[in-house]
Amino acid sequence: MAFDLAEYHERARRVRAEMQRADLDMLYVTSPPNITYLTGYDSRWYRRSTPTGVAVHAASDRLIFFDDITHRTLVSAHHAQVGEAAFFRRFRDVERDGWIFRNSADDVIDTLREEGWLRGSAGLEHWSTAPGGIPLRYIDERMTAAGARTIDGSWLVDRVRLVKSPAEIARLDNAAFIADAALAAISRDFQPGMSEIEVQGIAHYAMSRLDGEEPAIRTSVISGPNTRVQHPLPTRRKIGKGDLFTVDLCGSFYRYHANIARTFSAGEPDPRWRDLVTRAAVSFDHVVAAVRPGDPMEKAAEVAMQYLDSAGLTRYGWFIGGYDLGIAIPPDWVGHTYLNGRCFERADFAVGTVVNFENVLDVPEGWPGGFGTQNVDTLVMEEGGLRILSRLDRGITIV
Predict the structure, then answer these.
(1) How far, in Å, CA of 356 to CA of 287, rounded?
(2) What is the pLDDT of residues 99-125, one digit of tens each?
(3) How far is C-alpha 162 from the chain's CA centre?
(4) What span, in angstroms and rounded, lies between the C-alpha atoms of 62 and 16?
(5) Neighbours of 363 (CB within 10 A)
(6) Domain end point (choices 141, 160, 179)
(7) How far apart are CA 117 and CA 60, in angstroms?
(8) Residues of 30-63 as b/e, b for ≥16 C-beta within 10 angstroms?
């Protein structure tokens, strides 16, 4: 397992305490990263119709894990901290309208009712990537019909996950080491004429050699004229001499993600690029120096913007900010709190909070080599302040 049993028991205890504060008796957890957080379980496929989940009761030390009966061997062999498992049979009545999700959901509800866990309030994570909205709505209706008072349980486990234990931070340090190794491999092995996809391959091979897993968001490699676009996939474009290219990736270790991005130049860059990246990178130093435990997350973005404004670089800022990081399952590694404080929930920097900080710059008119640069790092809040996990320089790397 990724952690010993005591770590998982403490996580469940913290979730139950949060449930009691929210006046919630039972929570059915379906969000894949939250399932991994509570049990260590991970799968390569979370079906939109299958209500794989973990039931947590505020007054019980037990966790009940639910999955399709076809996954019995996966559950037993996956090194997960699963003490009790209940398996549903979605194929038992295929003539029924909506059988693909109704059969499974009925088994979940019947089991919870028989356990007595649908007396009082019951919560569902409506903000979950799996299952889909229609199965979740059906489960909600069945809970109500069984006598429960239903509550939206979204973000309750995510709120607990915001504060990482020392063991989790050790995993994140390992993930950052893996990400650094991927970018170092690009510096070492890149040759002009390689495609963006080939550069991605260098990074992924380097991460795999260090037991790094597939990241929850696909790696971004953009070069030359493609740098005018944000969040694209690597293409077959050949990177030639004089091209700027950026690589944005996550090292992933036991599903813990450390996000790092850097800018490269195939040959000596236009001096304006070097000057822009060097001056903008100072914003990281200002954030680390200014933000302390207890400060609002918004302060990190505000400090960075103040510096960029004083340096005359505000007009180049495409995105200056970030979000919380930790356990993540495809298709997303982004947490539910952002450094601008205006998304799902806002939060303060507690000791153990882990976020990324992004310094993504656009030059709309373009300079020789491209149209933008990226610097991204992952930061952990410790007793003395923020620590940057990556050990790589934030200037342009010439390859």
Answers:
(1) 12
(2) 999 999 999 999 999 999 999 999 999
(3) 11
(4) 11
(5) 20
(6) 160
(7) 10
(8) bbbbbbbbbbbbbbeebbebbbbbbbbbbebeeb
Q: How far is CA 329 from CA 40, 43, 108, 212, 225, in A?
A: 12, 9, 23, 14, 31
Strands (E), the chain: 26-29, 53-57, 63-68, 84-88, 121-124, 149-152, 220-223, 244-253, 256-265, 317-321, 354-367, 370-382, 385-388, 397-398
> Which tokens go with 397?
């790397």
Q: How confident is the model at residue 230 (pLDDT cuts 50, 70, 90)?
A: confident
> Does residue 179 share a domain with residue 132?
no
Q: Identify the weakest region by mean pLDDT among 116-120, 271-275, 325-329, 341-345.
A: 341-345
Q: Which tokens go with 379?
A: 């930061």
112 closest CA partner among 42, 46, 48, 65: 65
The CATH number that applies at residue 325 is 3.90.230.10
Count structural domains, the chain: 2
Beta pairing, strands 354-367 & 370-382: antiparallel
> In 116-195, which residue ranges form alpha helices assigned H by DSSP?
133-145, 156-161, 166-189
Mean pLDDT to the nearest integer, 364-387 = 97
pLDDT of residue 50: 93
The CA dihedral of 37, 43, 49, 52, to the nearest 10 degrees, is -40
